[in-house]
């Protein structure tokens, strides 16, 4: 047996360091863990998936599956650490922790800790490009003209340029000149500035500093449902990016996946569907189960659970299109969350007033965040403003917040706590899966070599075997099937293979039964067969098969 791998959650691992640790975990736990490559990136890096289950309790595809992915967006480094934590927690706690043991015995986990290894590696090295996309484009090639981000003062960080300009919309705070506040309408008589990301201007006309939307890509807009080429980084066509295409293929090849979470930063919120519709246009039963599972998440992480459309889409005419969740829930009916890890403002003591806000914070909020960053996040997160002679803009200052190491990712000291809380939520979500079991299998001898066989098949899970109403509406949910196999005999009444339909979960029983409320569906269904058999070796086997709720087999001898 190999040694326990040295895995720490107080640092951000490079691709090579992460790969070594994944390989070491797979070597240390060869029975429970299988490491595979889904695809190769533009830069030739493998996109890893770790599959984890106890094979002694049945094949992986015969168990409810849970899918976690991370770092589809390059600069969201905390996500990869959180996915690695989920892998590490499950494997190292098998046989020690009741939940981890039960989950690996009865379910299977698929964890993709770094979907976008090229972009991640790029943004993990100085000057820490604010990079979303994969390796299709490189910095400088992701825009035609205008401002090109560049570490022009050579300090190893991309920060901000404040350019004196009497037309400017910014001014230095009177209390703290490190902070920039917006100039009010009608305000005159001060020293004003324009703020730009650090860089040089390609094809500068000497007047206007244009900034193009980059085409580095946003693979979370590259999925087929509601795809639109107008989205930032949507790609040339759905699944045009090799990493996204490999993810989609993987999800389609694992129809047992019944729950998912995609990790992102930042914001400290658990996001649920819909991406494109108000709650009033969603299935009420689906919303309720999202809220109930989300409530568990909020208890474990402190993060509120919010609708992407209702709470995270400031302009309802500009809904997000082509996201992974849109495809996996709105199309396939899989219960899908996306967690935005890490909330710098909450950590700095700022009261949360909204979930998506591009507007500048007021002076008081900025001061709290500034004080926190200076005290806890060091010079990697804050660069003092320094005078600089810009070849195109003249005398300016360069400095300010390093976005990627402040707002976008937590300080390494906080990483483990964030990773743990969020991974534990996803294990709890996984444990809400449907679980189909043959509760009873009875034989009644009727004489003349005839036997009545009665089986009761039930769903022991929180979720129904169809997972969601959307899955039924889209005909994505396969009915539970029960098959009778007879050894040394034959079935003489009722088909050997029966479709049971769907079995409800306990999710629809939120309160005692009431004629006014949600009416209950069956969680268990009986079936009977008549079998003729003779001889001492005769017996029957019943196999209950649910695409999402697993496969259960029971046998009984006849006579
Ligand atoms: Zn993201």
Mean pLDDT: 96
Task: Give the biggest sheet.
Answer: 8 strands, mixed
Tertiary shape: elongated
CATH architecture of the largest domain: 3-Layer(aba) Sandwich
What is the beta-strand fraction? Answer: 25-35%
Cofactor: Zn(2+)
Protein name: Zinc carboxypeptidase
Keywords: Carboxypeptidase, Hydrolase, Metalloprotease, Protease, Zinc
GO cellular component, one term: extracellular space
What's this model, at a glance?
The protein has 559 residues and is of the alpha+beta class. Helix content is 24%, strand content 28%.
SSE topology sketch:
Blueprint: H1 15-28, E1 33-40, E2 46-52, E3 65-70, H2 77-93, H3 98-106, E4 108-112, H4 117-124, E5 146-149, E6 160-164, E7 170-172, E8 180-182, E9 193-197, E10 199-202, H5 242-253, E11 257-265, E12 269-272, H6 284-301, E13 305-307, H7 308-312, H8 324-331, E14 335-341, H9 344-347, H10 363-376, E15 382-390, E16 394-401, H11 412-430, E17 436-447, E18 450-459, H12 469-473, E19 480-487, E20 489-493, E21 497-501, E22 524-533, E23 539-546, E24 550-557
Parallel strand pairs: 3-4, 3-11, 11-14, 12-13
Antiparallel strand pairs: 1-2, 2-4, 5-10, 6-9, 6-16, 7-8, 12-14, 15-16, 17-18, 18-22, 19-21, 19-23, 20-22, 23-24
The site of zinc ion has 3 residues, from loops.
Q: Describe it for me?
A:
The structure is a single chain. The chain is an alpha+beta fold. It folds into 3 domains: about 260 residues, Aminopeptidase, CATH 3.40.630; about 130 residues, no CATH class; about 120 residues, Immunoglobulin-like (Sandwich), CATH 2.60.40. It contains 12 helices and 24 strands. The strands form 6 sheets. Strands 1-2-4-3-11-14-12-13 form an 8-stranded mixed β-sheet, sandwiched between helices. Strands 9-6-16-15 form a 4-stranded antiparallel β-sheet. Strand 23 and strand 24 form a beta hairpin. Helix 2 crosses helix 3 and helix 6 packs antiparallel against helix 11. It is elongated, with a radius of gyration of 28 Å. The two termini are about 45 Å apart. The mean pLDDT is about 95. The site of zinc ion has 3 residues, from loops. Zinc ion binds next to loops.
